[in-house]
Amino acid sequence: MSQPNLREIIKSEYKKCIEDPIYFMKKYVKIQHPIRGTVNFDLYPFQEKALTDLVENDLNIILKSRQMGISTLVAAYSLWLMIFHTDKNILCISITQETAKEIVTRVRFANENLPSWLKIPEAEDNRLSLKLTNGSAIKAVSSAGTAGRSAALSLLIIDEAAFIDGIEEIWLSAQYTLSTGGRAIVLSTPNGVGNFFHKTWVAAESGENKFNTIRLPWHLHPERDQAWRDKQTELSGVKGAAQECDCDFSTSGNQVVSVDILEFYKQTYIKDPIERRGNNQDYWIWDYPNYSKNYILVADCARGDGGDYSAFHVIDIENMEQVAEYKGQLTTKDYGNMLVSVATEYNNALLIVENNNVGWATLQQIIDRDYPNTFYSSTDLTIVDVERSYTNKLNSAEKKMVPGFTTTSKNRPLIISKLESFFREKSIIIKSIRLYEELNVFIWNGPKAEAMKGYNDDLVMSLSIGLWVRDTALRLRNDQMNVNKMLLSKINKVSSPVVINQNYNVLNQTNPHNGWEFSISDGKKEDLKWLL
């Protein structure tokens, strides 16, 4: 082959690579396959379509199954930008530096294995960054709050975006660096609902932002079938496999109450209140007081300013049905007055107020108003003893009782467990969309259940306390009352009159020789010597 022909061939190939990144990757990019070693990057059809979207859209969000080769695709796309354009600045952000540098490593490997006439020499090369002599560079950083603050970016890559804490701040910082026309690729497997990745995806699907959506579930991969999917369930469990494979927000994540159950509640019970009260219409009512029923009002307290909200529920304790709800911002004094007013309206409902922090100020107002049915609990519990809870202040000092309910590190896991079991068994009826939305973002963060960052759990926690009290202290009190009634009914059924003699012995006229024995129903006798 003559030299001029070789030049023409290289020129033609170079032109094809510039114009068509798919051609460039399939013919010249090499990757490291975990089983086959170094191979050509022979894109699958779904990868070609995804790459076309990346080229045609400035903002892309990718919801993907695990091990679909998308990180490799993004690395190859980054290399294409760096080689065929000058001064491209690419930033990769992931959960950790080690994760972020994987894309840089793939870019480095692919560049080193290009033909000499395509490869751009390296100006700088270290573990976390690579800079070429044409001024283009790629850098990997961890997901610190300042990660998005960089020089003007040509491309921002955020990997595993659904798992990054504080990603909202990163994205906000990046807006200034992307303002000169930069692009962004946000990719992740799902991690439940309510986080930045989920909200951005939902907003993109509804046209509320400018992101282009790319969904890549497991079955798009031509080398995977149902047997492979079933194997993932065996290896990772139902929930783990759903998160890693199915691209389904509803089956992923760590919600305390499963999404399937919440969806049942949304379809079955959630509805608009029949009345909204208050200056901000934040007191919602679904059922007015029924004077033949008993209610509890359980409240969580906040300062009344900033991002904190006070919240309460009114619950019909027989039917376990939510009848009213409040979530808003009031001063502690005004909130205390409101609680007394609503509790009085609902048949002097048992008023349960969490007494942590500012709850004491609200409770003081309730005490000053002399509300007669306030919940009291023990001050000296070294273990969780549900029997030592009372519903009135009689002799509270002697009993070492204080007004309100105290959430501790000992009883909080039990309270959350009670919440989960009530919903799992569908034993409670909730009607509030506000509560439903809080439950959607109430997750397990390690061993602790709490709201996702940037969300509130005021309604969830107040409901949890109410369910706990209803199913422990109130149930035990009711059981004791039933026992007392049973004993009284038996005493009323004594077959012959009981008198007291001069020696203060209990005598039964039919059995004068045994002063501690009397007859009860069906000819049976009861021995009262246990009273001695």
Compact description:
The chain is built from 15 helices and 25 strands. It has about 525 residues and is of the alpha/beta class.
Comma- or semicolon-separated keywords:
alpha/beta; 3 domains; 532 residues; Nucleotidyltransferase, domain 5; Rossmann fold; 25 strands; eight-stranded mixed sheet
List the helices and strands and how they pair.
Blueprint: H1 3-19, H2 21-28, E1 30-33, E2 37-40, H3 45-56, E3 59-64, H4 70-84, E4 89-94, H5 97-112, E5 122-126, E6 129-132, E7 137-142, E8 155-159, H6 167-178, E9 183-188, H7 196-205, E10 212-216, H8 226-245, H9 259-268, E11 275-277, E12 283-285, E13 295-300, E14 310-316, E15 321-328, H10 332-345, E16 350-353, H11 359-368, E17 376-378, E18 389-390, E19 401-403, H12 412-424, H13 433-440, E20 442-445, E21 448-451, H14 458-471, H15 473-492, E22 498-500, E23 506-508, E24 517-519, E25 525-527
Parallel strand pairs: 3-9, 3-10, 4-7, 4-8, 8-9, 13-16
Antiparallel strand pairs: 1-2, 5-6, 6-7, 11-12, 12-15, 13-14, 14-15, 17-18, 17-19, 20-21, 22-23, 24-25
Describe the protein's architecture and organization.
By secondary structure, this protein is of the alpha/beta class. It folds into three domains: about 5-250, 3-Layer(aba) Sandwich (Rossmann fold), CATH 3.40.50; about 260-475, Nucleotidyltransferase, domain 5; about 495-530, no CATH class. Helices cover about 35% and strands about 20% of the residues. The chain has helices at about 5-20, 20-30, 45-55, 70-85, 95-110, 165-180, 195-205, 225-245, 260-270, 330-345, 360-370, 410-425, 435-440, 460-470, 475-490; strands at about 30-35, 35-40, 60-65, 90-95, 120-125, 130, 135-140, 155-160, 185-190, 210-215, 275, 285, 295-300, 310-315, 320-330, 350-355, 375-380, 390, 400-405, 440-445, 450, 500, 505-510, 515-520, 525. The strands form seven sheets. An eight-stranded mixed beta sheet has the order 5-6-7-4-8-9-3-10, with helices on both faces. Strands 11-12-15-14-13-16 form a six-stranded mixed beta sheet. The N and C termini lie far apart (about 120 Å). The relative contact order is 0.07. Residues about 380-390 and about 495-510 have low confidence and may be disordered.
